[in-house]
């Protein structure tokens, strides 16, 4: 049954990322229809995350109280309504409103899904399970790219986006029939998730600890890359590398396949390290930090590269490494909040999504700053993204120590000391 649950979570995140990423492939027709600048397009991308963050924290804590099955059912039903609502968009204000509401509806999905996965998979195999789950994001954002291009060409950007609402309603019906909240028995030792309200006096010492803050910053920097991929990478392929629409779709799919394979292999290796030493620093922190440094170096390499093939290879490696980091950070947050896993993971994912607010605006402004020199502008944006990853990866390796942190205020384990 745990594999059926993981399959549902996998397809749920595919729909999630398809919903949010298809607009990147529709960037040119949307910008042309509404006469948008790069700065305004950055605002459109940023608007998705204005309520996403708050909805993520609230939804994650809410799922601990009413259950993950009910929460996921409600969320995907809301997506259906919002995706069909795109047919009414007639200008920039309505486009922004649609993105804001979609962000609010999709905000809790990631943390709630990872909380659901944690109920079915033990800590020693959780990295692999979450990597597969995150792989669904790669499928939704990149592997579907050729299909997105064809849908936009044949249906228009409104019709293409609206058609995705059909997928979410199918998921809801099947989930209501087949989904389950918890396994009948659990064969690993881990604190039980509580359904009481989260107390600030208990949570705040953990939230403001060095380990937690660095984990949040790492999630922020890794997600900055994923924001670039979904919002600006199709534009980069077309306007800098000179790809056709079909080539953009194929290149995105190729990067997605390669990144997915890299992420699953790396996450599996991280799990093996954890099984061997039972320490979060070596298997999660050091591993994630190195992955983030590699991702940053790859993006810098792409700036200097004179070869499209080398650029695609650099994007593939960096995407795989960043996706791996996205699978590691929730596990650290679940360690810090073992009886509040929905809240802990939602806190991590919501903070990382601040990159979704900041990144599009900064990248759009940097591209516009270069004026008519689009190549230079896109390189400014890549340099910003790479710099964040390099700084975060180094700080994470040097100062994050989850094995020495209190697991949860009032809920210490045998190996913990106070923060």
List keywords for this structure.
single chain; 419 residues; mainly alpha; 19 helices; 80% helix; Growth Hormone, Chain: A
Give the arrangement of secondary structure elements:
Elements: H1 2-25, H2 27-34, H3 38-47, H4 52-66, H5 68-85, H6 92-106, H7 109-120, H8 123-143, H9 145-163, H10 165-178, H11 200-207, H12 210-231, H13 233-239, H14 245-277, H15 280-304, H16 308-336, H17 341-352, H18 354-369, H19 374-399
Structural account:
The protein is built from 19 helices and no strands. Helix 1 packs parallel to helix 8 (123-143) and helix 3 (38-47) packs antiparallel against helix 18 (354-369). The radius of gyration is 20 Å and the shape is globular. The longest helix is centred in the middle third of the chain and has 33 residues, at 245-277. It is mainly alpha-helical. Residues 406-419 have low confidence and may be disordered. The chain has a single domain, classed as Up-down Bundle (Growth Hormone, Chain: A). The protein has helices at residues 2-25, 27-34, 38-47, 52-66, 68-85, 92-106, 109-120, 123-143, 145-163, 165-178, 200-207, 210-231, 233-239, 245-277, 280-304, 308-336, 341-352, 354-369, 374-399. It is 80% helix and 0% strand.
């Amino acid at each position: 049954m745990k594999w059926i649950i993981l399959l549902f979570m996998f397809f749920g995140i595919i729909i999630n990322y398809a919903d949010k990423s298809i607009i990147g492939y529709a960037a040119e027709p949307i910008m042309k229809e509404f006469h948008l600048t790069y700065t305004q397009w950055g605002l459109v991308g940023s608007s998705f995350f204005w309520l996403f963050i708050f909805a993520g924290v609230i939804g994650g804590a809410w799922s601990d109280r009413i259950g993950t099955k009910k929460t996921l059912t409600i969320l995907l039903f809301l997506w259906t309504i919002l995706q069909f609502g795109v047919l009414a968009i007639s200008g920039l204000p309505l486009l922004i409103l649609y993105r804001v509401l979609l962000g609010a509806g999709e905000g809790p999905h990631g943390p709630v899904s990872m909380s659901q996965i944690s109920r079915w998979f033990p800590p020693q195999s959780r990295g692999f399970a979450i990597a597969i789950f995150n792989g669904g994001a790669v499928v939704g954002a990149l592997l579907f790219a050729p299909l997105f291009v064809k849908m936009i060409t044949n249906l228009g950007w409104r019709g293409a986006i609206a058609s995705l609402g059909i997928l979410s309603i199918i998921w809801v019906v099947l989930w209501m029939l087949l989904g389950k909240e918890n396994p009948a028995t659990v064969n690993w030792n881990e604190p039980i998730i509580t359904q009481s309200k989260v107390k600030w006096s208990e949570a705040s010492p953990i939230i403001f600890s060095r380990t937690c803050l660095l984990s949040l910053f790492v999630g922020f920097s890794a997600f900055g890359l994923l924001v670039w991929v979904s919002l600006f990478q199709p534009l980069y392929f077309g306007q800098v590398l000179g790809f056709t629409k079909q080539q953009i779709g194929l290149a995105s799919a190729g990067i997605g396949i390669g990144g997915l394979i890299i992420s699953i292999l790396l996450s599996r290796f991280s799990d093996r390290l954890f099984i061997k030493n039972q320490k979060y620093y070596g298997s999660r922190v050091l591993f994630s930090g190195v992955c983030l440094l590699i991702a940053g170096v790859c993006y810098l390499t792409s700036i200097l590269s004179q070869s499209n093939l080398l650029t695609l290879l650099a994007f593939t490696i960096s995407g795989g490494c960043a996706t791996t980091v996205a699978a590691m950070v929730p596990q650290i947050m679940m360690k810090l909040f073992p009886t509040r896993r929905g809240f802990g993971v939602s806190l991590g994912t919501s903070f990382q999504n601040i990159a979704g607010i900041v990144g599009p605006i900064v990248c759009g402004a940097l591209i516009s700053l270069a004026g008519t020199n689009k190549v230079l502008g896109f390189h400014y944006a890549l340099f910003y993204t790479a710099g964040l990853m390099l700084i975060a990866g180094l700080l994470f390796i040097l100062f994050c120590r989850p094995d020495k942190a209190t697991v949860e205020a009032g809920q210490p384990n045998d190996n913990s000391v106070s923060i």
